[in-house]
Amino acid sequence: MFNGPVIITGTDTGVGKTIATAALAVALANQGHTVEAVKLAQTGDDDDAGTVARLSGVATKCLAHYPDPLAPSVAARRCGQPGMTFDDAYAQVRASEADVTLIEGAGGLLVPLGQDDWTVADLAQQLAAPVVVVARAGLGTINHTALTLAELDRRSLESFVVIGSWPNRPGIAEYENLHDLPGRRIGCIPEKAGRLAPAAFQRAAEAWLGQLALARAA
């Protein structure tokens, strides 16, 4: 299903992009692909690339890190750095020799990432890469997901949807969203999956991404 660069973005911040990236890395590695994960820009104290490496076991790297938990272009300005250029990010992503390069953005699709406020949508368009949109499970996700997918459609980019954190005790909104969430859904990742030990995470990850598992069987 995936080959070459793949963009992972979200409908918002904190929707489970990093855990989805790790699960995708495991599923694709299980299909025999070599996989590398790239975090475009890390802000604040988190270590998303480190989390993906720990859970999935694939090679990872982070292109930029800023101390304030803000949009990367804003965080760079606040600490006196110029911010990443689009050309540098593009070159580093294209330098990957892996079969599949999973490229995790920061926040949502149109968050400014560097100089001239380029976005992960701009990078996806330049790479002609498919985009995996990680969405919330609960109330409000239909609108946020539809807006994100509409922008990807406007740019003629192929898109897929993963529910990033399915709650242990889902309510009416979550169950109804299983039917009504727009887009081509390829997976649903359980809440707190990132707390699993790496071996347990790797055993379970492919099952969470049902369409990838079907593609492997075919």
TrEMBL record:
| Keywords of the record | ATP-binding, Biotin biosynthesis, Cytoplasm, Ligase, Magnesium, Metal-binding, Nucleotide-binding
Question: What GO terms describe the biological role, i.e. biological process, of this protein?
Answer: biotin biosynthetic process
User: GO terms for molecular function, please?
Assistant: ATP binding; dethiobiotin synthase activity; magnesium ion binding
InterPro entries, alphabetized: DTB_synth_BioD, P-loop_NTPase
Catalytic reaction list: (7R,8S)-7,8-diammoniononanoate + CO2 + ATP = (4R,5S)-dethiobiotin + ADP + phosphate + 3 H(+)
Q: Which residues bind substrate?
A: T43
Question: Would the keyword Magnesium turn up in this protein's UniProt record?
Answer: yes
Task: Kindly list the GO CC terms recorded for this protein.
Answer: cytosol
The entry's localization annotation reads: Cytoplasm
Report if keyword Metal-binding is assigned: yes
Q: Which superkingdom is the protein from? A: Bacteria
In this chain, ATP is annotated as bound at G14, V15, G16, K17, T18, I19, D48, E104, G105, A106, G107, E191
Q: Which residues form the active site?
A: K39
**What EC number(s) does the entry state?**
6.3.3.3
Q: Quote the pathway field.
A: Cofactor biosynthesis; biotin biosynthesis; biotin from 7,8-diaminononanoate: step 1/2
Q: Which cofactor does it need?
A: Mg(2+)
Specify where it is mainly localized.
Answer: cytoplasm
**UniProt binding sites for Mg(2+):** T18, D48, E104
Sequence similarity: Belongs to the dethiobiotin synthetase family.
Q: Which HAMAP family match?
A: BioD
Q: Assembly and partners?
A: Homodimer.
Matching entries from NCBIfam families are given as: bioD (TIGR00347)
Task performed by this protein: Catalyzes a mechanistically unusual reaction, the ATP-dependent insertion of CO2 between the N7 and N8 nitrogen atoms of 7,8-diaminopelargonic acid (DAPA, also called 7,8-diammoniononanoate) to form a ureido ring.
Protein name (record): ATP-dependent dethiobiotin synthetase BioD
Q: Which organism is it from?
A: Natronoglycomyces albus
Show the taxonomic lineage. Answer: Bacteria, Bacillati, Actinomycetota, Actinomycetes, Glycomycetales
Q: Gene encoding this chain?
A: bioD
